[in-house]
Amino acid sequence: MTSEGLLVGTVAAVGVLHTIVPDHWAPIVVIARQGNWSVRRTVRVAAVAGLGHVTTTLLLGLVLWVAGAVVATRYARAVSVVSALALIAFGAWIAYQGWREAHEGLGHQGAGVGRGTALMLILGSSPMIEGLPAFLSASTKGAALLAVMAAVFAIATITTYAVLCGLGVRGLQSASLGPFERYGEVLSGGVVAAVGIYALATA
What we know:
By secondary structure, the chain is mainly alpha-helical. The chain has one domain. The chain contains eight helices and no strands. Helix 2 packs antiparallel against helix 5 (111-124), helix 3 (39-67) runs parallel beside helix 5 (111-124) and helix 3 (39-67) packs antiparallel against helix 7 (143-173). Mean pLDDT is 75; it is low at 106-113.
């Protein structure tokens, strides 16, 4: 395999392997399950989150190229920390709203749209720094290779997001949580917040 092929294969592998970590797709699945989203809607939200993930990664790569490794690394960690804190706050808010609904008989007024948008913004704002070394290695090999790598990276990441979330929500659609259904929103919020805590601890 040529060095160019190895670089393309590297970004494809990073796109898949990084995205299968639960803190990327699990929040989408649990919110989709609680909101009774269709598989199509879940896949659409996941794809947009994946696109945001790819975009922030490539923009960070540009910052790295222009400003240097130290500045870009600090910036990447700061963004990861903010995204993790946002997930924790988002999960806590969902849990609180779910508790109120369970005890006060409130409805899900417009919850699905707002939560889908929030998830896309939060999950899509965190860059995937593992793929940056490969892009830096290719920076002297011409724009054509960089374009191919960017396209392959985007396809691998977005497809993995969409497939995992689609399969996840399809599997949960037929699952009955019995008495837990009443507190489903609280549980969903707890899962999202826990994912945020994990992301914060590993940032």
